[in-house]
Amino acid sequence: MTTQPKPALTASRILVADDDFQVRRLFATKLKEAGYSVSETSSGRQALDILRSKRFQALVLDLDMPDTDGFDVLKAVRSEMPHLRVLVVSGYMQGQLLRAAEWFGAQGAIDKLSAPDTLIETMHRLLGDS
Question: How far is residue 33's CA from residue 90's CA, in Å, rounded to a whole number?
């Protein structure tokens, strides 16, 4: 039996940055269904440009992107936007590398295989919506 996602208490703005269209669209859809306001991008460079131009409460960040990898984005975000909550995701970098992302300043890390089942719960926890 599947439980319905708990609606977000506020319309927090979340940016989903992932170069895989299907994964990005899945994450965005799930977050929108949970009541979040969601923007999407396929590039680390674009993610930084978007984050610098608008205020977001959270970033869902793929670590493995072709133009600017997630670690470079994470470093820039931590120095420029300390308020931003960052959830890193990866299909290839698991275990120690996801923990390393947390050490670099991400507030959460999940692998893409478990992300569809844990994304909303994790985002509620990161934003204090639970």
Answer: 22
Phi, psi of 11 (to 5 degrees): -85, 65
Q: Sign of torsion, CA 99 113 90 56? A: negative
Give CA angle at 19 (56, 126), nearest 5°. 35
How far apart CA 62 and CA 23 sit, in angstroms, is: 10
State pTM to two decimals. 0.86
pLDDT band for position 1 (cuts 50, 70, 90): very low
Q: What confidence score (pLDDT) does residue 121 get?
A: 93
Cβ-based neighbours of 59, under 8 Å, separated by 6 or more: 14, 15, 17, 47, 51, 77, 84, 85, 86, 87
- With beta carbons less than 8 A apart as the criterion, state whether 101 and 87 touch: no
Q: Which two tokens stand for residue 112?
A: 């893409």
CB 14 within 8 A of CB 56: yes
Residue 84: which of 57, 105, 104 has the closest Cα?
57
Residues facing residue 39 across a β-bridge: 15
